[in-house]
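Contributing new records

If you add data, match the layout below exactly. Sequence lines come first and carry their own label; structure lines follow with theirs. Keep one chain per record. Anything else will be rejected by the validation script.
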Amino acid sequence: MTEAQPLAFVAPAALTDAEEDTARADLYGLLAALFYRAPDAGTLHRIATARAEGEIAGSALGDAWNAMAEAAGGAMTEDVDDEYTALFLGVGKPDIFLYGSYYIAGFLNEKPLVSLRDDLARYGLERDEAVSETEDHLATLCEVMRYLIAGDDPTISNLQEQRVFFGRHLQPWVDTLCTQIEAHPSARFYAQVSRFARAFFSVEAVALDMA
């Protein structure tokens, strides 16, 4: 899993289409990194120092980013690591699952995972055998969206594939996941990560539907 750099927010009107796609891809990459494992000190610092300013600071997305940046600035890596473990790992069954099949079908490794694997096969993507998480893990889905935005093959990395993949494999369940994270008593830093993820996915849903 590669670790994306948090971007400094600027008003969308100031971005070219290519710059906007780069920004979207970067945010998907950052969310992939944050949900794959607890961030290290360098990642927390980069988030904390990249504040939304100007017009976008007053938007739901900018406000959520700044709340996450504030939380990152006051967080200790050991505490965030313990929080990640308490929320998403734990002993036996985790408190919160990060797998789409669980929310869409009610169980892990169900039909939504089969459908996802079919789409990944069309893209020429397959799970690394060294990775224990199944492909419907939120981090993997965010990485695939980053690929569909920033990849080099226009037959795969295009707006239509982004719309289909997001609508099929992310949109049906991410809001429910975010609700669970934000309601969990152990969620502090990840409550703000979830708030930002919710705002970002909401913007994506509207933008992809209108595109």
